[in-house]
Amino acid sequence: VLIDKETDNLIICDHGNRRVVRWSRRSGTTQGEILINNIQCVGVAMDDQRYVYVSDVGKHEVRRYQLSEKNGTLVAGGNGQGGGLSQLNWPRYLFVDRQQNVYVSDNNNHRVMKWNKG
Question: Per the database entry, which stretches of residues form a coiled coil (predicted)?
């Protein structure tokens, strides 16, 4: 879960329903908006430019999304499940620094991986 500080919305990885949703904290609504479907998300982060980063444990990758995007851009992993330097095995939690470097807790490899921007 994260809070979009600009809009005061919650961005939530709804792992059990295979989606990422946005909930307004201001509107009092009881229904969220689906941002991304068909994803085994666990971790979510947002950078200073409001890109959303999501870890997908099914595809062993991390993607970056603009809030209106459905497919995103691959930023980490994406080379199948494994322990190589370009692979992940159950990526979970994420952190993005001010330079848009992405840190991923690579759960089943027992390591933290850093991917530099670009």
Answer: none
